[in-house]
Amino acid sequence: QVQLVESGGGLVQAGGSLRLSCAASRSIFNIVVMGWYRQAPGKQRALVASITSGGRTNYADSVKGRFTISRDNAKNTVYLQMNSLKPEDTAVYYCNTVPGAVNYWGQGTQVTVSS
Q1: For residues 51 and 43, is the Cβ–Cβ distance under 8 A?
Q2: Secondary element (H or E) of residue 34
């Protein structure tokens, strides 16, 4: 069983930045694609960014050019740098494998962007 713990969320004004972190309880990064998902109130959870074990990244159109996903295999950690935040980025952010493993969902971290 892998535990994923997200951190780094908070309240920020529009145009601001946050860096989210996701720490895994054991090394899985060499064999899986990792991703950041978000769920806004009243909406389904959606994938916003992913990164392969080789470092290839992919982004949802809504965050392309503003968010950057990265990983540190030595630390079993994946990051999401979020710049130029918008109120519509407000959501609970989760990390997981891609596709998401049912047993790996953590508590997430709340990101709130004020206008």
Answers
A1: no
A2: strand 34-39
For 82, residues 6+ apart whose C-beta sits below 8 A from its C-beta are 17, 18, 19, 20, 63, 66, 67, 89, 111
Q: What percent of the chain has pLDDT over 90?
A: 78
CB 9 within 8 A of CB 90: no
Containing 20, the helix (H) or strand (E) segment is strand 18-24
Q: Is the dihedral of CA 27, 30, 31, 36 positive or negative?
A: positive
**pLDDT (tens digit, 9 = 90+) per residue, 34-52?**
999 999 999 999 999 999 9
Rounded CA gap, 114 and 85, in Å?
Answer: 9
